[in-house]
Amino acid sequence: MAVRHVGVLVVGLASQSVIMSACSSPTPAMATPGMVVIADGRYTVGADAGEAANARPREIVSVRGFQIDRTEVTNADFARFVHATAYRTTAEQPVDWATLSRELPPGTPRPPDEALTPGALVFVSPASPVPLNDERAWWQWTPGADWRHPAGPASGITDRAAHPVVQVSHADATAYCAWAGKRLPTDVEWEVAARGGLTAKRFAWGDEPVSPARANVWEGEFPLQHAAHDRDVTTAPVGSYPANGYGLSDMSGNVWEWTADRFEEAMMPDGSGRYGRVIDERIVRGGSFLCHPTYCAGYEVAARMHSSANTSLQNTGFRCAADRPRALSSRSNP
Predict the structure, then answer these.
(1) I want to staple 32 with a disulfide (CB 3.0 to 4.6 A). Which of 15, 41, 78, 230 is the partner?
(2) CA 47 to CA 51: how far, in whole Å?
(3) What's the structural domain count of the chain?
(4) Residue 160's closest CA among 324, 317, 334?
């Protein structure tokens, strides 16, 4: 098993909780409210070949201590940011065809102007069975969909203040974290945090199968019928499901979460049939309320999926990270 050292970008704040690590006992530490401190340490990440989608090879990484939000950023959190800054999300701006065309196969025709108005992708359950290898069967471009209207212009978030914000692009998530004095977690940081102190386990809670009691995932026949025994047809309020060993909620299910890292295989044809155009795709983690074993196992802790950085989706949000508190700068694991 390889051992690798992973650097951490320097940005800022801290949180209220405990230091947890693979190599030391929990140590009390002051940290930024709403965050958990993860100690310096050597952690096992990744999976053996074939165990999880796009997982990095199982390896031991050396990680500098950091902090991470206990929950996904909520609609109420994001509303405070927008109120303070007058920020407009990607979904609230007209689509820039020049930018979008660079991420599409060469020769893709320009859509009509009405399709380039502000909007985002919304899940729409098809009326009859569809192949599960083409996501276009259940994702629909919806003008007027944005973080305030996650399912389209007729929807709203008035009663969803505690739900995770969605319909936010990678740039939107980055802007919020910067405003909060934080940053997005790296891919490795996210996985270390999601494992909650467990080693080589399939899920954030261990090896027991996913269930409606453990995570907000799809129940029923995907994508036709959601049984919704847990009453969460889409997102659930953050913290509705049991936290992992570090006290972090929704590291599996609810919404996919943006990370800071690019997906290394994000390539597009260069026009000659070869893959030579690199596009900006970022790693997303954790799965969402649309995950079902027949289609998506993104709730597995090692699974790594990816999405275009300028895409806004009804099932994608984020949580922030930050460097460890300064008071701990000289403390590390043996």
Answers:
(1) 15
(2) 6
(3) 1
(4) 317
